[in-house]
Design a protein that fits this description.
single chain; 6 strands; six-stranded mixed β-sheet; 30% strand; alpha/beta; 37% helix
Length: 153
């Protein structure tokens, strides 16, 4: 996982993701970090994209990501929980390896009960909160989940 991240705009590899995050934060101390994941089924594969977004207040954002292809995950709940696990594992690894705070984990779940992902929202947000992370879900602004969605398609 550490060496699999690429820059969204160029697809260039970033090297060690922890070193990259540290350098970005040192060069841009006001930036805040969001992490999100999205998944899509294509044919017999499930593609997960996990994104790290460096938000520069009033000056845009910079995105790096990791793409992973697995045998197709048919069960929606399993696939969605996989998104949560990837975001959480990355946020935890960054915090443990760099000491840098993750501002928010963006969940591609919906707070509207009309959507199936709503059934997982309370469990997911409770889990993340118990581990010290702030999370948000749709319809809030979810820049990392949006970036992961764009890169997944």
């Amino acid at each position: 996982m550490v060496d699999e991240f690429r820059i969204m705009s160029s697809k260039r590899k970033v090297g060690n993701v922890f070193d990259y995050v540290q350098k970005m934060k040192e060069e841009n101390p006001d930036c805040v970090i969001h992490i999100g994941c999205d998944s899509q089924n294509f044919g017999d594969k499930t593609t997960y994209v996990t994104a790290i977004v460096f938000r520069f207040p009033g000056h845009g954002a910079h995105v790096i990501y990791r793409k992973e292809k697995l045998p197709k995950i048919e069960v929606m709940w399993t696939k969605l929980w996989g998104e949560l696990e990837r975001s959480l594992n990355l946020a935890t690894a960054i915090t443990e390896n760099t000491g840098i705070e993750i501002k928010q984990i963006d969940l591609d779940f919906n707070s509207n009960p009309e959507f199936a992902s709503h059934k997982l929202l309370n469990a997911a947000q409770g889990y993340l909160s118990s581990l010290g992370f702030i999370s948000r879900a749709k319809p809030n602004l979810l820049i990392a989940a949006w970036a992961a969605d764009v890169l997944c398609n």
